[in-house]
Amino acid sequence: MSDFLSNFDSDNYKNMLNEKKNNKDVSSDTNENLALETDDLQSSASDYDKQEFDDVDVMFQEETKHVNDTKIKVKRKRKKSDKGIDEDHSTGNGVEHDVEIDPDYKKKQQTKRILIGGIVGICLLLLYMVYYQMTRVSVPDFSGKTVVEAKNWATENKMKPEIKQEYSLKIDSNGIISQSVTPNKKIKKGSNITFKVSEGADPKGKITLPDFETMSKEEVEQWIKKNKAENVTIIDEYNDKIETGKFIRLEFTDKEVNKENYLRQDIANVYFSKGKEVFEKNISVPDFRKKAKSEVEDWAKKNDINVEFKEADSDKIEPDFVISQTVSPETKLAKHDKMSVSISVGKAVVVPNFANYSAEEATNVSPDLQVVTKQSFSDNVPFGQLIAQSVEAGKKLTGNDNKTVNVTYSAGRPYIKSFFGQLEGDIPKLIYENFNSKGASVTYEVYYVDSDKEKGQIVNTNAYNQYISTNAHLVFAVSNGRYASLPDEKTTSQDE
Length: 496
What we know:
Elements: H1 2-12, H2 30-44, H3 50-65, E1 75-77, H4 82-91, E2 98-100, H5 105-135, E3 136-138, H6 147-156, E4 160-166, E5 176-179, E6 186-188, E7 192-198, H7 217-226, E8 232-237, E9 247-252, E10 268-273, E11 283-284, H8 293-303, E12 306-312, E13 322-325, E14 332-333, E15 338-344, E16 349-350, H9 359-362, E17 370-376, E18 386-389, E19 396-397, E20 404-410, E21 415-416, H10 427-434, E22 443-449, E23 458-461, E24 466-467, E25 473-479, H11 487-495
Parallel strand pairs: 4-7, 8-10, 12-15, 17-20, 22-25
Antiparallel strand pairs: 1-2, 3-6, 5-7, 9-10, 11-14, 13-15, 16-19, 18-20, 21-24, 23-25
């Protein structure tokens, strides 16, 4: 219908004004003027084909019936201003026009504006919501999480984390204690957020150690976990005497630490028994004969075998090489088993019986021995016979042994000569050189007598020019010179 009216206007109203007052309110006298304007329109259209107009009117009525919104379309004469009418009359174009009035037009325009405004508002709201979501982030609950997780989250969301550390007995080290922003709260990216992070238990905190002797291993483990005593270590070790799982001992690495002054930072070891260690016999013993001692030592260390080395002389095996072994080759041993190995010390020198040799012969008996001879007085052994030798006869001396042999021969019984005329001051020398230097233990004493002998001379003794025992006690009489002449006077008298 609208297309038809458009064609109708273009064909019949070529001089129609371009401007229409669509937004002008219909005055209250519209209904009164409708009939008049209709008659005017019909009379002014007398120059047109009446039949064509009737057809248009019929179509107009049919179209109006099918409009759902009860739109009323009427024909009215477009009002013009006086100026416009004068212009039409002055130009001789006083033409009247058909105009359609839609009573719901204003309402539609308002609805359109509201709809457009609503759409714009919704778009702006959506844009704001998108912006809000992009610039805000929901803060998770970091309880039970580590500081590393918190820092990673802060980095991903461009947050500025501040870490404050404090000791905590409940939260493990590096665990989050609390956070400055409530969990699930949305905050702007780039904001500051503070985390309290646990440093673990206070290392300088004093701990009362329990009586570990009455506790099982599992109970000690629970105590360590409960008290955050991370420096208390449980060590299992084999023990042949203590039952498996029983307490062995408590040790502190610092000697100044004890159960009374123990701090959490101090290191302590609690030992529990694993019982007796049992090993499988799966170690094969090699044939070590004529092998070097070092080879046996390496094998024993590698396989944890206790090897006892015994030295023995050998004319055929070089020193430090194996002569024999107590465990046969290919025998299976277990860890900590024992075996012995004989190691050659080379050819041995047999110490002779020096009783068969004189003191002169003894020094030349063996070129491999260094023989030192001496003489000593003896109350029982005759002169020239052997009293003793430092190394027993028949003993084998090897390369590592001292090959010096001291041999003592008898000088017989001590014999004291006459010491008359000797001075008192020479007595100690006489006793040592004549007796005690050769193994005797002779002692002496001195007493003084009136004598015409020069003062200090020995004038008598309890034994002289005879054999004495090795432990004899000698008594010397020494002149006090009471009746003796002075040495100068004696010399003068002799000259006369």
